[in-house]
Write a structure and sequence with these properties.
Blueprint (H helix, E strand, L loop, with lengths): L7 H10 L5 H10 L7 H16 L7 H14 L4 H4 L12 E2 L6 E5 L2 H17 L9 E7 L2 E5 L4 E3 L5 E2 L4 H4 L3 E2 L8 E7 L1 H8 L6 H10 L5 H8 L3 E5 L6 E3 L1 H6 L1 H9 L6 E8 L2 H7 L5 E8 L3 E15 L4 E13 L2 E7 L3 H7 L6 E7 L5 E7 L17 E3 L2 E3 L7 H15 L7 H9 L5 H6 L2 H6 L4 H16 L2 E2 H6 L8 H8 L4 H4 L4 H5 L6 H22 L5 E2 L4 H6 L8 E5 L7 H10 L3 E3 L8 E4 L5 H9 L3 E4 H8 L1
Parallel strand pairs: 2-12, 7-9, 20-21, 22-23, 22-24, 24-25
Antiparallel strand pairs: 1-6, 3-10, 3-11, 4-5, 4-8, 8-9, 11-12, 13-14, 13-16, 14-15, 14-19, 16-17, 18-19
Helix pairs in contact: 1-3, 3-4, 15-16
This protein binds nicotinamide-adenine-dinucleotide and zinc ion.
Cofactor: Mg(2+); Mn(2+)
Protein name: DNA ligase
EC number: 6.5.1.2
Length: 648
């Protein structure tokens, strides 16, 4: 257990609060992360103290702990002013003014279950209002961790206690801009600082970005580095109204909850401490309303960064598909953010060597909510043990920059097995060839992709699969050949370094599969998007797989060929870049389908004729005036048949 003590700076912040309390008791409670020994008054003092420290940029406990203490106090004192109003800022600039609009805090959730409960309340409100629940739109935005303020177009206010704030318009006078030069007057938002800019230019001088935000609105003389940050647009006022966002209904959200949260979470370059979910329908908002602290139609989803110090039991080398040997630290099993963690990868063996990761080392592990845990730092290093032989084939390992590598490309079981797994996973058009079954087959001697395709149902059975499974595996293999797949996907399934799907597609826009294997480093380096080092790696990688590749290719996969760049260019249609408008009833089919087709041919489809329109395509029953109008504007009028002739 760490013993916590307030430092001088914190003590001076606390002094201004004028709480009458034995600070020693608070220090013990913070150390123990427990309030069991505090009276109600002491608990309130603890909340006030931690809040003030948090607001001045030096939080001393985790948000989740603060929130649990807050909840305990709220339980016994639901009507206490500390509970019913928003936690106040500690900045005091003197006079307060009424805010143009109430600024509330947000309700908080730390788990998907809590979010589901909140969504259920939204859906219930929809039902009470007789609104189709599928139509209820949820909007999710990143929760900016800056300094809350409200811009009414004339003045900028701090949130204050949510009802009265302070006029800090001087921030704009100091050159602060609204993000992306948006207009003023977009309401609530936060003053935020670009993370990368802070790291690069400000972190040597300021402990955290909150200090800077406070300086902009509070101080008489703002540091010139901060003024520079404002001038360069790295420090802005970001209204919530113009945040990147995800919208969709309940079902959309539930199909990919983790993915959506992660995507929104990472959508801005500012500090974020959660995401905000809200119902957008004004009827729902009115119906659900707010209490004195938060809107019931809005909630913050936060994730707790959990840290643990864990002992390493051993470091296991694992050979990957490419031959790189990855060190995996086996840990004394420890619960972090709700999951039992017993292993974590160390990036490469150079890290093991430099940082001293080995049996008996103590490492600090961090897990941010949904994310895979990682080693943050090594607290107690030991002498690391470096493997000399490949754990799979016992070849002597070689160093390649930071990595230990098994040089046995053709016959290392770990490499061949992982290559098979990668192949079937990339094809993604068949079932049955996951890691488990592949391991079973590989152990029994199936080393190469082409060997897999040689297997007959009775052979699967010989390898210990049941009769039905054997037949199914055989059928799946045939299907994977017969179902059409793109040639670039097929090539990328061989797992050559630097030949992921994107690069394969780019290359196959210039070369056929057969030609590509003949291409030289110079040929590839000449193409847009390929540096010389990549070209070298690609040529080498292709040479390594050439024999196996053609054994598999010759099995007759149903490949769709990537269109060649030259063809794409000569294919430019007569509609490329033209603006067309359709009017009247078409004989050939629905007008909407024709519009889609025109778009696919590169045209822009307009809804009304302007002088920029290239063609007006007139179907049946089009009035004479419309046609004459178009002609007057210099627009070429085509009948449906003339149009079809043009594009055929
Ligand atoms: N660790 C600590 O010691 C400590 C102390 C006090 C408070 N806290 C934390 O602060 C919370 C209370 O602070 P708070 O009232 O400022 O609430 P908050 O900061 O958690 O969230 C509410 C605020 O989020 C802002 N916000 C940011 N992005 C937004 C968006 N996209 N849409 C809408 N609003 C957005 C708004 O200004 C709103 O007022 C506590 O629940 C706790 O988690 C921690
Ligand atoms: Zn090996």
């Amino acid at each position: 257990m760490k013993e916590f003590k307030f430092n001088d700076e914190q003590l001076s912040t606390i002094q201004e609060l004028e709480v009458d309390i034995d600070l020693k008791k608070l220090e013990i409670a913070i150390s123990k992360e427990s309030i069991d020994e505090l009276s109600e008054d002491e608990l309130l003092a603890l909340l006030k103290v931690t809040n003030a420290l948090y607001r001045s940029g030096f939080p001393v406990i985790e948000d989740i702990l603060y929130d649990s203490f807050w909840n305990k106090f709220a339980l016994n004192h639901p009507n206490h002013p500390f509970i019913t109003s928003v936690e106040t800022e500690v900045l005091n600039l003197g006079k307060t003014v009424a805010l143009p609009q109430k600024m509330l805090s947000t309700d908080k959730a730390y788990s998907k279950e809590e979010i589901k409960k909140w969504l259920d309340r939204i859906l219930k409100a929809a039902e009470e209002l007789d609104i189709d629940t599928n139509e209820i739109e949820i909007r999710i935005t990143p929760k900016l961790d800056g300094y809350a303020a409200f811009d009414d177009g004339e003045r900028l206010y701090t949130r204050g206690d949510g009802v009265k704030g302070q006029d800090v318009s001087r921030a704009f006078e100091r050159g602060l801009k609204v993000v992306r030069n948006s207009e003023r007057g977009l309401g609530a938002g936060e003053i935020v600082i670009n993370k990368a800019y802070f790291e690069k230019k400000l972190s040597q001088y300021f402990e955290n970005s909150r200090n800077i935000q406070a300086a902009i609105i509070a101080e008489k003389n703002v540091d010139e580095r901060v003024l520079e940050a404002i001038k360069e647009g790295a420090c802005v006022f970001h209204p919530f109204a113009v945040l990147p966002n995800w919208t969709g209904n309940y079902q959309d959200l539930m199909t990919d909850f983790d993915g959506i949260i992660e995507q929104v979470w990472n959508s801005v370059e500012y500090d974020v401490d959660g995401v905000i979910l809200e119902a957008t329908d004004t009827r729902i908002k009115e119906h659900m309303g707010a209490n004195r602290k938060f809107h019931r139609w809005q909630i913050a989803f936060k994730i707790n960064d959990e840290v643990a110090e864990v002992e390493v039991i051993s470091v296991t080398p694992q050979t990957s598909r490419t031959g790189r040997v990855t060190p995996v630290a086996e840990l004394v099993p420890t619960r972090i953010s709700g999951a039992m963690i017993s292993r974590v990868t160390v990036h490469h063996y150079n890290m093991v060597k430099i940082n001293g990761v080995g049996p008996g080392a103590i490492v600090q592990i961090v897990r941010s909510g949904l994310v895979i845990p990682k080693i943050e730092k090594v607290i107690k290093p030991v002498d690391p043990q470096m493997p000399e032989l490949c754990p799979s084939c016992k070849s002597h390992l070689l160093w390649e920059s930071d990595h230990l590598v098994c040089p046995n490309k053709s016959d290392c079981p770990a490499q061949t097995e992982n290559t098979l797994v990668h192949f079937f996973k990339t094809l993604a058009n068949n079932d049955g060839f996951g890691p488990k079954n592949i391991e079973k087959l590989a152990n029994l001697g199936v080393k190469h992709i082409h060997q897999m395709y040689d297997l007959k149902p009775h052979q699967f059975a010989m390898y210990g699969f049941g009769e039905k499974t054997s037949k199914n595996l055989y059928d799946q293999l045939q299907a994977s050949k017969n179902i059409e797949i793109e040639d670039w996907r097929f090539l990328s399934a061989f797992g050559v370094s630097r030949l992921g799907g994107g690069n394969c597609e780019k290359l196959l826009q210039h070369y056929s599969l057969r030609e590509l294997f003949e291409a030289t480093v110079e040929d590839i380096a000449e193409l847009n998007g390929f540096a010389r080092v990549s070209a070298e790696a690609i040529v080498k990688g292709l040479a390594n797989i050439k024999e196996e590749f053609f054994k598999v290719y010759d099995l007759g996969f149903n490949l769709s060929i990537t269109p060649k760049q030259s063809e794409l260019e000569s294919l430019a249609s007569p509609l490329t870049g033209k603006i067309v408008v359709f009017t009247g009833k078409m004989l050939q089919g629905k007008r909407s389908d024709m519009e889609k087709h025109a778009k696919a041919l590169g045209a822009k489809v307009g809804t009304s004729v302007t002088s920029n329109t290239t063609y007006l395509i007139a179907g049946l029953k089009v009035g004479e005036t419309k046609i004459n109008d178009a002609k007057e504007k210099g627009v070429k009028v085509l009948s449906e048949q003339e149009y079809l002739d043009l594009i055929s």
